Amino acid sequence: MKKNGVGDTENYLDICIAGQQLTVYADGNRVVHYPVSTAKKGAGELMGSECTPTGWHKIRAKIGAGQPLNSVFVGRRPTGEIYSADLGEQHPQRDWMLTRILWLGGLEPGKNRYGNVDTAWRYIYIHGCPDQFMNGRPESHGCIRMNNADVLDLFNRVEAGVKVYIHE
Question: How many CB atoms neighbour CB 145 within 10 A?
Fold first, then answer.
């Protein structure tokens, strides 16, 4: 259990930037962990920084329930496309958001909430990406990327409102 500015919590997600790992805690016990890819530019909260924000957050919305594995999202909406290597080659500039989206909102005013550090309005998500992009290194533009099967499993384990602690 962690002491923090938003109250004690026993059910939360812990995202370690240094370890590129997301761990699910339930009733204070480690339940499962997944590899992730955080920001290539490291940790940081400023709008436009392309960094992964730290501190306490919550899942403000779960997006994509019922969509097929590898569904493509643009602007948090499914496009009807299913990601494939061919589609990836046709659109090499896209920052792929696949399968499910967990939209994060900061809980610490002045650190990751409100003004130019607001995680929600930076559109920071936990989302699926092409599995070949998951290579154990930070490579995102600020979001937390996951393998598609892993983000689907995580999506099915958590509810909106669950707390998320992101740290270096």
Answer: 27
